[in-house]
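---------- Forwarded message ----------

FYI, see the Concanavalin A-like lectin/glucanase record below. Original note from H. follows.
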Amino acid sequence: MLTALLPALALARLASAIAWEVILDPIASSGNTWTSLQFTITIPPAPPASVASGPWFFWAGLQPGLDCGALGVVQPVLQWSEYSTCAVNDAPAFPEVWQLVQWSVPSVNHNANQSSVSCGIWAAPGDEVQNNVTLSGGQWTQSSRVVQGLARGAAASQTVRASDFFCGETANFFLLESELYGPSASIAAWDFPVQFTNVSLTAATPTGVSALCGAQRSFSDGNGNATLAGYTLGGDGRTCSWARVTLVPP
């Protein structure tokens, strides 16, 4: 969903993505929806020195209003070569390579077609950033905090009114993916895994959750591999968790 907001130059370049989707079908789940998402992302090494362009994004998020003609998304995004206009930890004691930024991307004709973008968090390779996305009282709230590493303690948050951004408050569609832009040689230079840990999705009710989450498997789509490990279903029947989800280049 970031593609709708990238500069024209980026849009003119190739894009490549490995995407894992977990979709609550409205019919099979009696209209059940996702209400929260949690995950921790470990900051990977810097892109290879041979890469001179981008941007590259690695993210997980929820798409509200699956019935919209053009979906929006709430998403904490780890990004390289495109950054927020502000940062909560300017001039860190490490190279400014990776930034964690929260995006709320509107459905078409919502919020004047303008995204809400948080200040970024600079993070160093090996740092761990914990992220939460929650729907409550008609508002989507994102919070991110570095819980381990050189940027430990740096945090950002963002809250938007769901009705201002989306066709409805509900979110049926979960995505976790890489989203790489640039010439083909640049995209092909992706050579490191990106690890998400403690990935949890919670739905409004248990209907359809166990069957949907229990059927998820590791896969490849030609643009990379998504390896899933350590699945559990919470005692409430509403929460699916994976100990690790790793995106690996092709």
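H. also flagged this: Residues 2-248 form a domain with the Jelly Rolls fold (CATH 2.60.120).
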